[in-house]
Amino acid sequence: MSERGTDREAGGQEVHAPVAEPLLVDAASVGAMFGISRNMVWKLHSTGRLGPLPVRLGRCTRWRLCELRMWVEAGCPTRDQWLQQG
Prior knowledge:
By secondary structure, the chain is of the alpha+beta class.
């Protein structure tokens, strides 16, 4: 299988494998989605302006992609407001 998620059948035709969307994303990915820097993601998190709380996996910190989407759809409320809604 290639990096693009495609493979070739015996007849030479491309077969597209489904590309899985990540469930959890790191600060750099959150920043890229929102058009801000990784450092700004951490600043928003530390000041409570980034509503969803991250989860820890060992030493890694990740945010749930589905929760980030719901947060944006809700109008990006502060953490206090976000947690009250939940």
